[in-house]
Amino acid sequence: MRHKNCQWADVAVRARKIDVKRTSMKRVLISGGAGFIGSSLALRLLDSGDKIRILDNLSPQIHGPDGESSYLFKRLRGHVEFLKGDVRNREDWERALDGCDSVVHLAAETGTGQSMYMVKHYVDVNIQGTAVLMEVLAQGRFPMERLVVASSRAVYGEGAYRCLRHGDVYPAGRDENDLKNGHFEPRCPRCGAFVTMAITPEDAPLSPTSLYGITKLAQEQMVMTMGSALGLPCVGLRFQNVYGPGQSLHNPYTGILAIFTNLLRSGKGINIFEDGRESRDFVFIDDVVHSIVSSLAGGRADGRVLNIGSGVPLTVFDAANYLKELLGGRSEIAVSGNFRIGDIRHNVADLRRAEEALDFRPTVDVKDGIKRYVDWVLTQDAHSTGYEESLNEMRAKGLLK
Fold this sequence. Notes:
Elements: E1 27-31, H1 36-47, E2 51-56, H2 60-63, H3 71-74, E3 81-84, H4 90-97, E4 102-105, H5 112-115, H6 119-138, E5 146-152, E6 161-163, E7 167-169, H7 176-180, E8 196-197, E9 199-200, H8 211-230, E10 234-239, E11 241-243, H9 256-265, E12 270-272, E13 279-284, H10 285-296, E14 304-308, E15 313-315, H11 316-327, E16 333-335, E17 348-349, H12 352-358, H13 366-377, H14 387-396
Parallel strand pairs: 1-2, 1-4, 2-3, 4-5, 5-10, 9-17, 10-14, 11-13, 12-16
Antiparallel strand pairs: 6-7, 6-8, 13-15
């Protein structure tokens, strides 16, 4: 039975086409659906004729001081049913789930560095919020066809590396004395030699090095364990660094491309941590959305947790310089040797299982994707970053060295 306040929005199918087969129209709840990934997913699902409900608290850290005037919210207005609420609140979940067929659980706090000093808040939102969802579903009042949960590459910590003597190894973390002395690559846990990056498969040891990573691991494990017990098909997606048009330009704690973009547009210099050769797997938003849509369609991904990325590393130094090339300006890009406690050196996704289970193949080259992102950024007002304040917070708490 539908909630008395439920008003599903009817939206004409847009011109873009979906290449994922859908058997029928779905009623999909997206928690955190007014965020970057959630709003992009909502628009994609609307294109295929699905009905979308969003549960979101319009966090000022993501949307700015007036959430309803943010770019992300405005592109959804009039097209979806929006419920403002908190995932830690049982009544909000019950109101949101009523009448839906499937859930995509994206709502989470996402700042790796911020998580190291806002510990209770990250645990409350990410772990407690997910626990409330699973407890409500366990009551059996809101039968669902499928649940997709957003996890993160942060669950691996450093992930996979290769040692000349011992082959594939999985360092638990980096020694602070090494970092202080400018030795930034991880060491082999068996012989202590420096190791080189390898792609990280899903069966790599799960060893998060940040509180954020711990909360994402708890989220995915709760969902997959409870889903199995309830007979609810669930899919977990371990996202790498997601970027593209629509990315929040307000959040100083996450989204390195957005942070660099804001600094460059304001004429401020960029301080590259470590030696600049640390790398990330940047995956374009369209590819991420495709992975979620494919997961909702059901099939070989049910009951599995999968990597979603580009499978290609890009160094932070190269990313910053490419942004500077696209945006112009004379901002200085300096490699400082600073480092943050909890940061990883490299992590690149092994995508073979995602290809097998979801027919997932990244379609957007990182340089083309960054160009498309910058083209969108130039249509947006410039923002003061708040980035310096976030670094000062970490420095004051001993987390930035």
